[in-house]
């Protein structure tokens, strides 16, 4: 019945039921990449933001969908948490269209926090509702022509992550982990889930890997004696980068100039180079 060659969602098409992958209504997106972790607080949103800035710096058009609905931190990363998306009516059937909020570099961001009145209001919804909202934010946002859409996915192997892997045509996924978590079963579960869902894993980023001694410049691994390469090997994944604990990065976020800081810093070039190599750009 369906033709899977033209289906945007490779993992979600079979010749009986046809193509049922989600397609954005108001945009055309060339590459969709998910960023995921085993648990929260390891720097998944930070890595999403850094990659978005680096890709934008190369001249690509970039969007970021904050899919971590219950812990959205992308607007805060870019310092746009006081802005709100314009919501417009489409036709008279009750359909709406969301305008993404643009960062100073022109990265188009969509997050539930940009749609709700108060940033602090908690999301007290059950899984199916959250999944529906996420799908709507993906498909009803006016993305326009994008080279890259990065999706900051919810951590772990819950039903929202599963829906994204099943229904969104992901070209690949980047896994983010701290050193102590790299060899844990939670990250391994994410890797196994991605493989079962036929989602390509671009590689793993080890975040908060080390600190640099302010006096002698020595790299000190604070959470694990194993190297990041050894840890990535355990997971059977390519290492995209090991990133230090960096208080200048945190400060730049607090001061609202993270895009300027990240685009000038050489620290994140390895991440971008390895990402480009694996994606083939
Ligand atoms: P997640 O998306 O995995 O929940 P976040 O990216 O929101 O994690 O990061 C959690 C916290 O850790 C944030 O306060 C962020 O500023 C901080 N953080 C993340 N990566 C680093 C880093 N490399 N150096 C210093 N702080 C970091």
Automatic annotation (TrEMBL):
Coiled coil: none annotated. It comes from the Bacteria. GO terms for biological process: iron-sulfur cluster assembly. One of its GO terms (molecular function) is ATP hydrolysis activity. ATP binds at residues 38-45. Keywords: ATP-binding, Hydrolase, Iron, Iron-sulfur, Metal-binding, Nucleotide-binding. PANTHER family: IRON-SULFUR PROTEIN NUBPL. Homodimer. Binds and transfers iron-sulfur (Fe-S) clusters to target apoproteins. Can hydrolyze ATP. Belongs to the Mrp/NBP35 ATP-binding proteins family. HAMAP family: Mrp_NBP35. This is Iron-sulfur cluster carrier protein. It comes from Clostridium aciditolerans.
